[in-house]
Each structure stands twice: as structure tokens, then as C-alpha cells.
């Protein structure tokens, strides 16, 4: 166990364990292991703070889904207006995905940037809760917009800290742990916010905007907790910089919008897969609780539990699938499996009354697998100097798609009902499936490496490196 920890989290003594190319630290006076940035206990503390940095953001992102019935009843809004709460989160990130890394690298720095984005998340949740307290729905929309400004950029900052403190193979585990903690935040929200609303209602003696507002304000405590983690992490990073002559972390992203004209057909197909797939997952989860109550006659507690199963499965399975895809390669095959499984899940939910736990567990596995196989493919089809632009563009159109689909899903549900909504989500997955099949043939015809095995890719990379040396 001790050897695994050393291999994973860096040496306990010699070497700083930070990014490459840093200045060698001067000999330090002996420090307690919990206070020494080079030692395992201190690095584990930093890792815990990194993981909790995004906990509040992910917890509060799905507050509307956990309280759909209460929001629509207390605020007297239809489903389209309710889903606009998700759209308003996505709108600022259509643009900010291009500039989050720039703001961290060139304007604020990682420490101040993380604190500022955490403050935006807190402020957005407070405004969101005040909108409910004051029975003013447009103010709730404004709160979600402010929340969105901080949410996605905070994830960029979280990854930047990870790259700054960890390196090599240990970085994959750190990213996996951060993603798992994010999913835990979403899961806890789904299963506890309804209970908090009930306790506040019992305390006040009535339901209504005040009860909803207080519940959302209590949920906002998680954002304050994450802000505290950001402040402590900034102090520890500043301290490590002084002790070890460590440079402040940077994203390394270079955004050049002119690179878009050079994007290949394979990359555009990856974008289509991303938008169409996630459009059938996140908006569905946003509306899922009431769906399970109305179609399958679940209690609110049971509906919350099954609606969160996608996140519950994703928490442990994302690191496992990441390792699997790294070892085996064949990314397109894994994406194809994930999309087909998701389509089967939506068809089961739409046209059968089978136990929905089966379909939702399949959806959770497919969602975890797709994320591990799809996002790394961008690096295979884009030169390194265009990666920042490619990922920024991918996140941008994903947020644009989610904003539009969220509003469309709400309108379909208001006018046509859940069957048409599930058919709509199935159609989105079918578009994603068509794009995957097209990607397979385009990759095959152009001699691309997206579907190579990991062994073949490693062998050819070694051969290329040898040729370069010669």
C-alpha cells in the first residue's frame, strides 16, 4: 500500500512532485509532514481541497431537478420556464469556455481566479434563493446566469491546480477523483434537497416561495464550503511557491478562433456526437424526478434516488472506464457501445413499463463510458497547438446545445407530454449514433488513428520518436 501511494502521489522526500521544469528548491528546515509540500500527507490535504473545490457547484447545479415539483408549484411556472433555469446556466458558457483559461493564465492567476469564480458561484446561488424568497422568477433566472459564469470556469481552475501539483500517471487518478467528487455532489443534492424542503416546510408551517427560498439558501452552504476550500488552497499554493520556488499553475491553453477553419471532418463529427448525446442526458435528468413519479408511480424519495443513479454509477466507474480505454484503445468502438446502450435505455423508458432501474443503470454505465472515450479523441485529431481552441469550441457548442434543448424539452413536455419527450431524446441519440457511424468510416477512409488499439498506437508513437531522433 505504501509503495502504491508513493507511485501515485509522488515521493515523500526528494523532489518536489510538481510540474516539469521548475526551479530546484533550496534545502528546507525540517517541517511536520502535514506542513511540508513535498510530503504525502500535505499533498493528500491539497488533493482533498481540490476535490471539494467543485462540490458546491455540482451540488447546486441540479437544485432545480431535485426540487422540480416544488419550484413549479411555489413559483407558478410551466415546464418550459422551469427548464430555462438550466438554459440560463449554459448561456454565459457559450462564450466563457473560450476565455476561462485566458483569464486564469493572463489576468487573475490561478489563485485569485479560483477565488473569484467561487464567489460568482456563491453569489449566483444567493441571488437564485432570493428570487424564490421574493417570489420573483426573473431574479432566479439572473441567479442561474451568475452561477453559470463561475461554474464552468471553476472546473477549469480545478484542473489547472491538479496539473500544477501532480504530474505523470498520478494525474489521471487525480482527474478521476475530482470527477467522482463532482458526481457525489450531484447525488447528494438529488437525495437530500427534497428532505430539506420538507423540514423547512414543517418549521414554517406552510409551503410557498419562502420555503423554497430558505431551502435553496441552505443548499448554498455547500458553495460557501467550496469557497473556503478555494481560500485555503490559495494560501497553501502560495506557501508552496515560496518554499519550493514553484511557479503558479497555468492552464497552458492557447485559444485562436482562426484555428476553427482548419478543423477536420472527424473533429466536427466528434462535436455532433457530444452535443446530441449530452442533450439526451442532462435535460432528461433535469426533468426525470417528476417523470418517474407520474409514469412509474414512484414516491418522491424513490424518484430522487433513481434520478441520481446515473451520477452514483459515474462516480466509481469513470476512473475504471478511463483505465480500460487507456489500456485497450479502440475509442470509436467504446463510443458506439455507449451511444447504442443509451438509445436502448431511452427506448425502454419511453415504450415499456419495465422496472426503470434497469434502464437508468444502463444509462449510468453508458454515460460514464462515453465521457472516457469521447473527450480524449479530440487530442488524436487536433495538433497540440490547437487543443485549447478545440476543447473550448467543444464546450461552447455543448453549452449552446444544452441551453436550446433544455428550453425545447420544457416546451415539448408542456404541449405533448412525456412520451413525445422521450421520443425527442431518442431522436437526439439517433443523430449521435449516425455521427458515430460516419466517424468510423471517415476515420477508416482517411487512415486516422481514432480506432487504433492502445498497443498499436504506442508502437507507432515509439517508431515515430525513433525516426525523429535519427
Could you please describe the fold and organization of this structure?
The protein has 21 helices and no strands. By secondary structure, the chain is mainly alpha-helical. Helix 3 crosses helix 9, helix 3 runs antiparallel to helix 11 and helix 8 (about 135-165) runs antiparallel to helix 9. The radius of gyration is 23 Å and the shape is globular.
What's the layout of helices and strands?
Blueprint: H1 2-9, H2 40-53, H3 55-61, H4 63-66, H5 68-75, H6 79-108, H7 110-133, H8 137-165, H9 169-204, H10 209-219, H11 221-244, H12 265-279, H13 282-296, H14 300-307, H15 309-328, H16 331-351, H17 356-374, H18 377-381, H19 387-415, H20 418-445, H21 454-469
Helix pairs in contact: 2-8, 2-9, 2-11, 3-9, 3-11, 6-7, 6-8, 6-19, 7-8, 7-10, 7-11, 8-9, 9-10, 9-14, 9-15, 12-19, 12-20, 13-14, 13-19, 15-17, 16-17, 16-20
Q: What is the strand tally?
A: 0
Our measurement of the CA-to-CA distance between the termini, rounded to an integer number of angstroms, reads 41 Å
Number of helices: 21
Shape: globular
Our Rg estimate from Cα atoms comes to 23 Å
What are the low-pLDDT stretches, counting only 5+ consecutive residues below 50? 1-25
Beta-strand proportion = under 5%
Overall average pLDDT: 86
Main sheet summary: none
Sheet/helix structural class: mainly alpha
Instruction: Give the helices and strands as they follow along the chain.
Output: HHHHHHHHHHHHHHHHHHHHH
**What's the helical proportion of residues?**
over 70%
Amino acid at each position: 500500500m505504501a509503495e502504491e501511494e508513493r507511485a501515485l502521489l509522488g515521493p515523500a522526500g526528494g523532489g518536489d512532485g510538481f510540474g516539469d521544469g521548475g526551479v530546484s528548491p533550496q534545502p528546507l528546515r525540517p517541517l511536520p509532514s502535514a506542513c511540508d509540500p513535498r510530503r504525502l500527507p500535505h499533498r493528500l490535504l491539497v488533493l482533498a481541497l481540490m476535490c471539494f473545490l467543485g462540490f458546491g457547484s455540482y451540488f447546486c447545479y441540479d437544485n432545480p431537478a431535485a426540487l422540480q415539483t416544488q419550484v413549479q408549484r411555489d413559483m407558478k411556472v410551466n415546464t418550459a420556464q422551469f427548464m430555462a433555469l438550466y438554459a440560463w446556466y449554459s448561456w454565459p458558457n457559450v462564450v466563457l469556455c473560450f476565455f476561462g483559461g485566458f483569464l486564469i493564465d493572463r489576468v487573475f492567476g490561478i489563485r485569485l481566479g479560483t477565488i473569484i469564480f467561487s464567489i460568482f458561484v456563491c453569489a449566483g446561488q444567493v441571488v437564485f434563493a432570493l428570487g424564490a424568497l421574493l417570489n420573483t422568477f426573473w431574479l432566479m433566472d439572473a441567479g442561474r446566469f451568475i452561477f453559470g459564469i463561475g461554474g464552468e470556469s471553476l472546473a477549469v481552475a480545478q484542473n489547472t491546480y491538479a496539473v500544477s501539483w501532480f504530474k505523470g500517471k498520478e494525474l489521471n487518478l487525480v482527474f478521476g477523483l475530482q470527477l467522482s467528487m463532482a458526481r457525489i455532489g450531484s447525488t447528494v443534492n438529488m437525495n437530500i434537497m427534497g428532505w430539506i424542503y420538507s423540514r423547512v416546510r414543517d418549521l414554517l408551517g406552510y409551503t410557498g416561495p419562502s420555503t423554497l427560498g430558505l431551502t435553496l439558501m441552505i443548499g448554498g452552504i455547500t458553495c460557501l464550503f467550496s469557497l473556503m476550500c478555494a481560500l485555503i488552497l490559495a494560501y497553501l499554493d502560495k506557501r508552496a511557491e515560496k518554499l519550493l520556488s514553484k511557479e503558479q499553475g497555468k492552464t497552458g491553453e492557447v485559444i485562436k478562433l482562426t484555428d476553427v477553419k482548419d478543423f477536420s471532418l472527424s473533429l466536427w463529427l466528434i462535436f455532433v456526437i457530444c452535443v446530441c448525446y449530452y442533450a439526451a442526458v442532462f435535460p432528461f435528468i433535469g426533468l426525470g424526478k417528476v417523470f418517474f413519479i407520474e409514469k412509474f408511480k414512484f414516491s418522491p424519495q424513490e424518484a430522487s434516488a433513481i434520478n441520481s443513479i446515473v451520477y452514483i454509477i459515474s462516480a466509481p466507474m469513470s476512473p475504471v472506464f478511463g483505465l480500460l480505454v487507456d489500456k485497450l484503445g479502440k475509442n470509436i468502438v467504446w463510443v458506439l457501445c455507449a451511444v447504442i446502450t443509451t438509445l436502448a435505455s431511452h427506448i425502454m423508458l419511453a415504450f415499456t413499463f419495465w422496472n426503470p432501474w434497469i434502464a437508468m443503470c444502463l444509462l449510468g454505465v453508458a454515460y460514464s463510458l462515453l465521457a472516457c472515450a469521447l473527450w480524449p479523441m479530440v487530442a488524436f485529431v487536433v495538433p497540440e497547438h490547437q487543443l485549447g481552441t478545440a476543447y473550448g469550441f467543444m464546450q461552447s457548442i455543448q453549452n449552446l446545445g444544452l441551453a436550446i434543448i433544455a428550453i425545447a424539452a420544457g416546451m415539448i413536455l408542456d404541449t405533448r407530454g412525456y412520451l413525445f419527450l422521450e421520443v425527442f431524446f431518442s431522436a437526439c441519440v439517433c443523430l449521435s449514433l449516425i455521427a458515430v457511424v460516419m466517424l468510423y468510416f471517415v476515420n477508416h477512409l482517411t487512415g486516422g488513428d481514432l480506432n487504433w488499439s492502445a498497443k498499436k498506437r504506442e508502437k507507432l508513437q515509439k517508431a515515430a520518436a525513433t525516426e525523429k531522433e535519427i
